[in-house]
User: What shape does this take?
Amino acid sequence: MIQVLENLSPVFLVIGLGYFSRKLGFLPDNFILSANRLVYYIAIPLLVFSEISRGKFSESFDMRQLAGTLLAVGLVMLLAIVVAFIMKMPRKRAVTFTQISYHGNLGYIGLAVIFYSLGPGGRVAASVLAGFLILMQNILSISIYTFIPGDGKRLTVKSLGKFLGNPIILGTVLGLISSGWGITLPGFLNRTLQIVADMALPLALLIIGGSLRSGASGRTVQLGISSILKLLVLPLTGLILFRVLDVSRALAVPSIILLSSPSATVSYVMSTEMGGDSDLAAAAVTISTALSIITYTLWLSIAGNYL
Assistant: This one.
């Protein structure tokens, strides 16, 4: 337990540094917006590409790991829809509640926890899996906003391209092509990629801290239930499936870390764009991020002993 906390604490201390830096005026909103675009469109996609392209796809891809991870997300999404129906949430709140219950912050927090707690051993497999998981999360999120009846905005070609054209997915695909075809980049390009990659996660964590906002009034119950689904039920479902599918510990632990990630910041963007409850989404990102240091400690300890 102590070792797990030592591995996790730097990630959340940097998030805390970002939060207090914003409070002190060192991270103004315009800087956070610009830095977020830099990280989202350039730094993290290059990080993912760099990690995957240096490895061998045949050694980093496991169908059972992928199946267990994606199935866990799908099951929790269906559970969240049922809960929203039972609680008779209005459509606007129901779609956002469903999304924040399974859509995790993989690029900014999930990968950071893996990189800093597992070291190089878990990086390549996690990067490959994250690409597939990000694609599925976006497809599911677009689907619930489009097909759950109500007065929300409809799907357009522009919005579809915006959310499916995820830079991290593109970095994953190009990395897989490079790895599968055995493409070797010149030394100066590898060093350039490494410099950008080393910048990506620390800056992403500062941005997460600087972006945290206060909770939404009148939504306490929904926030509590969605946090339980996202931080406890989803990784537990994954853990059970990995045991059933006999996924190795080396592959299951990175998967559980990704499944345990707090609600994604893109949930707020999508809820605003497609007629959801943006206040609920913003509060869920803040609360689940704060709680995830506890749940990450729990799941890493359980996974280390159980798998």
Q: What stands out?
A: The mean pLDDT is 82. Residues 278-306 form the longest helix (29 residues).
